[in-house]
């Protein structure tokens, strides 16, 4: 089947085609019951149960497709969204300075995507790194030096601000006529090797566990941006109600992953103390037990806090504490 000719009427949803965000993104789609079958080597998959087509793209390219409105929804890292936003901002600045308008006929700024929600996985930091055994101790020491990175626009912006601060000019990162003293060298991968191979004095690269940096004899001296995976949308999605539906389903899945349901029995006179420990997302559900003076409580608790919460509940007299996994939710903001 020629899938490209079957996209009419479908909301296009970009998903990372490989890499660290792929599996978690697929798990979210499954939890949100977005059903599809991806043919071998095809980067387009039609959803079986919704008017949606999934487009599998490199994570770094997703903000471009969404920002230009070609694709309505996307899952990618906030770092890639920030890189794209910096590029878009630089292009707008250049346009304005050459007297051209950066607005559409509706008076809106062209380009750019909007973050809908944090998806809670894919944590990492984009950091400035230098050799541990080297002459550079602070970011200022790198001004005028060679910097290797895959995030050229964020790195340029970072060093432009640093150079402006150093020269005493205020906010000249918004001046596109600036001439950077620092040389930003674009690398597409294995950025950590650049210092050892003499290509760069420092790098701007992602750090998750820190293992790669350590193995390459590097240390972080500043953080440019902290990132997690995010759901993004274009400014004018083709089907806004389908965007809302998918966003609400995804929110339901990530809320379910974040919370557990805690049920316990307690004497009614301990209610103020236990509701303080487990206030719930809105409020705890309280039911009278057949035994006089006792109530049963059912309440959502953040998964990461549940052990401490159980300790505290036990200490104030709660008994029969049960913790249940939540398969899915539709509850509002996580
Ligand atoms: N340790 C990590 N290194 C790189 N990216 C990470 C890491 N942890 C989380 N991420 C997130 O995953 C996103 C995609 O990175 P990943 O390297 O998996 O992509 P990729 O498409 O395989 O790219 P590449 O071909 O450059 O390796 C990043 O933009 C970032 O948001
Ligand atoms: O802090 P860590 O957990 O060690 O992860 C960080 C490393 O992971 C990424 O590289 P990736 O593995 O994607 O390969 P690449 O260098 O080819 O981009 C990133 O560019 C770092 O090199």
TrEMBL record:
Q: In which pathway does it act?
A: Amino-acid biosynthesis; L-histidine biosynthesis; L-histidine from 5-phospho-alpha-D-ribose 1-diphosphate: step 1/9
User: Where can this protein be found?
Assistant: Cytoplasm
The UniProt keywords, alphabetically, are: Amino-acid biosynthesis, ATP-binding, Cytoplasm, Glycosyltransferase, Histidine biosynthesis, Nucleotide-binding, Transferase
Q: Does the keyword rRNA processing apply?
A: no
Per the record, its GO cellular-component terms are: cytoplasm
Domain Histidine biosynthesis HisG C-terminal, by residue range, is 256-327
Name the family the entry cites. Belongs to the ATP phosphoribosyltransferase family.
By what name is this protein known? ATP phosphoribosyltransferase
- Origin organism lineage: Eukaryota, Fungi, Dikarya, Ascomycota, Pezizomycotina
């Amino acid at each position: 089947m020629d899938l490209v000719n079957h996209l009419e009427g479908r909301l296009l949803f970009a998903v990372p085609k490989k890499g660290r965000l792929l599996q978690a993104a697929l798990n979210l789609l499954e939890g949100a019951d977005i059903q599809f079958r991806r043919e071998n080597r095809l980067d387009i998959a039609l959803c079986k149960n919704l008017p949606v087509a999934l487009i599998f793209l490199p994570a770094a390219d997703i903000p471009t497709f969404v920002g230009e409105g070609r694709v309505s929804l996307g899952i990618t890292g906030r770092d890639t969204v920030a890189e794209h936003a910096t590029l878009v901002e630089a292009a707008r600045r250049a346009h304005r300075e050459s007297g051209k308008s950066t607005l559409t006929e509706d008076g809106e700024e062209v380009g750019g995507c909007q973050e809908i929600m944090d998806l809670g996985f894919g944590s990492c930091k984009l950091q400035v790194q230098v050799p541990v055994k080297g002459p550079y101790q602070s970011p200022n020491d790198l001004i005028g030096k060679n910097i290797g990175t895959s995030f050229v626009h964020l790195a340029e912006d970072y060093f432009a601000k640093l150079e402006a601060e150093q020269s005493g000019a205020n906010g000249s990162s918004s001046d596109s006529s600036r001439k950077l003293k620092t040389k930003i060298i674009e690398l597409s991968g294995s950025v950590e090797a650049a210092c050892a191979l003499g290509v760069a004095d420092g790098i701007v690269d992602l750090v998750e566990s820190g293992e790669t940096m350590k193995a390459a004899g590097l240390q972080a001296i500043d953080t440019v941006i902290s990132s997690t995976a995010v759901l993004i949308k274009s400014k004018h999605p083709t089907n806004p109600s389908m965007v809302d539906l998918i966003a609400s389903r995804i929110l339901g899945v990530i809320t379910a992953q974040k919370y557990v349901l805690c049920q316990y029995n307690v004497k009614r006179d301990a209610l103020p103390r236990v509701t303080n420990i487990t206030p719930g997302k809105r409020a705890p559900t309280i039911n009278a037990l057949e035994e006089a003076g006792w109530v049963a409580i059912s309440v959502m608790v953040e998964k990461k806090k549940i052990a401490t919460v159980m300790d505290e509940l036990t200490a104030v007299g709660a008994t029969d504490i049960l913790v249940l996994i939540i398969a899915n939710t539709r509850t509002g903001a996580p």
